[in-house]
Amino acid sequence: MNILEEMKARRLFCDGGMGSLLQAQGLKAGELPELWNLTHPEVIKEIHREYLKAGADIMTTNTFGANRLKYKENLEDVVTAAVRNAKAAVEEEGHGYVALDLGPTGKLLKPLGDLEFEAAVDLYREVVAAGAAAGADLVLIETMSDSYELKAAVLAAKEAGFGPDGKRLPIFATVIYDEKGKLLTGGNVESTVALLEGLKVDVLGINCGLGPVQMKGILEEILKVSSTPVLVNPNAGLPRSEGGKTVYDINAAQFAKVMEEIVSMGAVIVGGCCGTTLEHIRETVDRCKDMPVVWPEKKGRTIISSYSQAVLFDRRTVIIGERINPTGKSKFKQALRDHNLEYILREGVAQQDNGAHVLDVNVGLPEIDEPSMMEETIRELQSVIDLPLQIDTSNIEAMERAMRCYNGKPLINSANGKEEVMSQVFPLVAKYGGVVVGLCLDEAGIPETADGRIAVGRKIIDRAAQYGIGPEDIILDGLCMTVSSDSKGALTTLETLRRIRDELGGKSILGVSNISFGLPQREIINSAFFTMAMECGLNGAIINPNSEAMMRAFYSFNALMDLDPQCSQYIGIYSGQTAGLGQTFSKGGNGSGNAGMSGAGSAGAAGGPGAGDNSQALMSSIERGLKEKAHEAVSELLKEKEALVIINEVMIPALDHVGKGFEKGTVFLPQLLMSAEAAKAAFEVIKSSMEGSGQVQEKKGKIILATVKGDIHDIGKNIVKVLLENYSYDVIDLGKDVPPERIVEEALKQQVPLVGLSALMTTTVPNMEETIRQLRKEAPEVKVMVGGAVLTEDYARTIGADAYCRDAMASVHFAEQRFGGM
Predict the structure, then answer these.
(1) How far is the C-alpha of 99 from the C-alpha of 532, rounded, in Å?
(2) pLDDT tens sequence across 70-90
(3) Residues near 364 by Cβ (< 8 Å), separated by ≥ 6?
(4) Is 508 helix (H, G, I), strand (E, B) or coil?
(5) How confident is the model over 676-711, as pLDDT tens digits?
(6) What share of the chain is helix, strand, coil (3-state, %, to 5)?
(7) What are the CA-CA distances from residue 277 to residues 20, 31, 677 (Å)?
């Protein structure tokens, strides 16, 4: 019996913490724990054996930080030894499974960081290949805070994780949420579950960062939307420092009691993470082993996602913006020929501001390299826009490259009932995940009747099922034909929509404006047909959200059909309306994560920054992360205002606006960083202007940043650096794995008033405490701010830090306090 079969038959348990137990065995602060697979194999094997004796079933290999970035010479040896140590323990105890553990690389992926997506896949692929060859039973991806890195790890496991029998190893994947249920890069429960279920992992869940009490609310959210078994591995509560050691505030009995509640809620597999010991697992097993396994119900949700949000196709029609498409658009065609991505980004921003929930992306022109252009466009759009995207192409290479690099679960436009097309598209959907549009046509052409279209729709659904694609991941296009050439075209389409809903129980989509080709005043026909289609159950409408007539039809329909409770959105948009189109719709928002930025950004974005007031154009460009437009806007503004005035009255307020949105949870990390990059582009123009005129921009002060000794995870530090530099601080970045002595030496040499320290791993926090101790002794006037996933405010206080900064903006605020009070 393999693990996927056994987990249905009885309750299985993961092991607990490894790092804290190794520290108890003599692992020094900052020492690489994975090396103990080679130097102390008996210790590693014994820890696994003790967990097995305590009742655990799944042994997590000591490979959390094992990758080529850290182990350049002996990675395969380290991974192979780790798997063999765990296998030996399992064989000696006579039960259990070996889970190859994959943790984060410690790098932020492009465009936010410097690690290429494919490079991340390669890093994980090496580990998976070695672990699978050594005999691992499954792959456990854990503690992921970035959905893009999570996808890279899952793809590596799917592509390299094959056992000796040629079968793919099961894939379990857990992420680290904060108390609000958000990933570091902004993803939420719905978007993460959509991504992982699209990629078809076998088990998904949550680990680390929080104790079991804090995880209960997040687990409840996961269970509402997940059709996949859920795994929960909490920390032993919240950490603090005692005598230079990290301890946690929940003992084994308390932990087990809450884990019993978590199991009763519906978690299928449970175990522990940081701070949990043999006793925590033993007590949990004793309490929960006889509780029946409740398998999750199939939710049947038709859902797509971006890195930060999910869009559900349900009763309320989803607006899919059609403007990123060269058909009939001469300016857009020229932008594609000129490789003018900024034009495409502005089209996307305008549609988002005007109410789109999803953006269609079509870059097909005969004279360009469509696969390369599609891939680049998807990456660039996702760097400034948080809406899910529809990948619209008939070019299979372009489709695969876009699906592979897409950060989320996309909408795919399209397949149809032709066997040749289905056999090309469905394998891609099965591998990368997505909801695919199925056009109700086949080798015989477009059926003239609703009967014919429904028959093709059934064929598409049945054929998709053979690839493991459920009907919830198919949206049928009932085909909208122009009424000017077929007077019954609209009637046939509307009947098809009704029958997709009522007979097939499926979801439908239409390119609505097709109905009016060849007619004058097309918006009149389009908006009327749009309302009729929504009444017939239309789930997805590909329309122009910049069209006032179409959006009025949408908001009015929702108000009339009780899809807008208390008509609140309608009232918010149209009460006292005197504004123009772009401003009108940005008031209403679209539920996206960018809503907190749309007020100041929409006017410039809709017409393109540079239109109207140059100050507003610059502010809009910075808030939207449009680097080229920020460069253009500041160049124009320098003709009107002094450089320092621009910095203080336009740029800093723009950054503050984005920062406040980040703190409120309406702006996410990618948007925060792209805004910072746009500001940096503007600063470069200002710097050149100031140097030419002899002006000097004074730095507010020097700050040292460092990731402490033994820790190579520098994501947090790098984010803080970008923001501090934009706020005119002179940042001295000492990098990662920095000894305390080096930090003290630089603090004295540079005479800095503030040092920022980061750490991700429990095993490296003692080096943070030692660094603070040495700074207090040698440079007592220096203030220290700390951050990292394993820290809390209480923990920071117990190790002597002056400030705990839970995110990058908190670091900016503390720096402002420190230098403002000097």
Answers:
(1) 53
(2) 999 999 999 999 999 999 999
(3) 326, 370, 393, 394, 395, 398
(4) strand
(5) 889 989 988 988 888 777 666 678 899 999 999 988
(6) 50, 15, 35
(7) 8, 20, 44
